[in-house]
Specification:
alpha/beta; single chain; 8-stranded mixed β-sheet; 12 helices; 388 residues; Aspartate Aminotransferase, domain 1; 2 domains
Length: 388
């Protein structure tokens, strides 16, 4: 009766089951996986609420690409980062997940292929299945810092490859694209007629000391490029449901892509009017939250490095974003480490296989966690490692 898209194993994994049992028993949990800024104890300015108090929200003015005022607010966001774009190249979506769905519809026929980095965010598989397309992975390798394995990338390209996804910075490794990598990618995409899709939701969260990083692909001219972001990370407002796609590339391709994207968007008209009218104010007020997030991630990163220095947990190099990757001894599987930490110490971390790391053993920790909880959790993690 139901679509073959629903082929996933929907049973809870062992870590989810263990977490449920612990919650049912009322046992304490030090959650080092927090990814929702609205639950992380930040002081949101009252201007965010008042931004929605505008008379324009009572008038329905469907606009497939998004209201001009909202697209102008997005253009102003980039202008503050010394990136000049016109509103004609901006298309609003309810989220980056929806943006991926639009782009898969735009670029792919059923059975076509899109390249995705490994490790990376696990949502891609579900989004691809929903659009009846296939994913092929290319590797990110670590040699003191993360980088694209171009041998793996070129081997993944086939006659059905339509796009290549870049997560910049990567989630969870916190790696930015480098200038030399971008040059090679653009050349490859142009020659093979492959579009680049750049997920830049964490781009604003670059860490001090990161050098040679490409912060955005907006304005790339030599190949068709789609850059995505949104209020969820830029302003710490995932509940506001406003994202965007910026289309760059050769003029004719860019114009055709925008036209077709507007046809897709017109089918759904999913972006709410209130958040579009509030966009400029939300971006302005959200900058306060963004500063708070930056301060916390810096503080938590410094604490983790200091606390775990000399231990068996190696904090891998990170350049931006909200997460760190810990390399731990391969004496246990990642799942065993995560389950042991939860049962013995009440500390919740994510095992690397959630993000499809190619080898063992890695644990992923969120720097968004409240500092007091983060400090206690990292301290217990160190203690647990020392006891094994």
């Amino acid at each position: 009766m139901f679509s073959s898209r629903f082929h996933w194993d929907l049973k809870p994994n062992p870590l989810t089951q263990a977490l449920h049992r612990r919650r049912q028993a009322g046992e304490p949990i030090l959650d080092l996986t927090e990814s929702n800024p609205t639950r992380a104890g930040f002081a949101y300015p009252p201007e965010i609420v008042s931004a929605l108090n505008q008379p324009g929200i009572l008038l329905y003015e469907p606009s497939p690409g998004g209201l001009l005022a909202a697209r102008s607010a997005v253009a102003a966001y980039y202008a503050e980062r010394n990136i000049t774009i016109t509103t004609s190249g901006i298309l609003l979506t309810a989220s980056t997940s929806e943006a991926y769905a639009y782009l898969f519809k735009l670029l792919c026929n059923p059975g076509d292929e899109v390249l995705v980095p490994r490790p990376s965010y696990p949502l891609f598989e579900f989004l691809a299945d929903m659009e009846s397309i296939h994913l092929r992975q290319y590797s990110l390798s670590y040699h003191g810092e993360w980088g694209i394995d171009f041998e793996s990338l070129t081997a993944a390209i086939s006659s059905r490859t339509r796009a290549m996804i870049l997560v910049n910075p990567n989630n969870p490794t916190g790696t930015y694209l480098k200038s030399a990598e971008l040059e090679s990618l653009v050349s490859l995409a142009r020659d093979r007629q492959i579009a680049l899709i750049s997920d830049e939701v964490f781009s604003d969260y670059i860490l001090p000391g990161a050098t040679g990083c490409v912060l955005s692909l907006v304005g790339a001219h030599d190949c068709l490029t789609f850059s995505m972001s949104g209020l969820s990370k830029v302003a710490g407002l995932p509940q506001m449901k406003l994202g965007w796609i910026v289309v760059s590339g050769p003029h004719d391709l860019q114009a055709e892509a925008v036209e077709k994207l507007e046809w897709i968007a017109d089918t759904y008209l999913s972006v709410g009017t209130p958040v579009q009218h509030a966009a400029a104010s939300l971006l302005e007020a959200g900058a306060v939250v963004q500063r708070e997030i930056r301060q916390r991630t810096l503080r938590n990163l410094a604490f983790a490095k200091d606390t775990l220095a000399g231990s068996t947990a190696n904090v891998l190099n990170v350049e931006g974003g909200w997460y760190i990757v810990l390399q731990v001894p391969r004496t246990r599987s990642e799942e065993e480490w995560a389950l042991g930490l939860l049962s013995s110490e009440g500390v919740l971390v994510q095992p690397g296989y959630f993000f499809d790391f190619e080898s063992e053993a890695f644990l992923v920790v969120s720097l968004l966690t409240r500092p007091e909880m983060f400090a206690e959790g990292i301290g217990r993690l160190k203690r647990y490692l020392e006891g094994k």
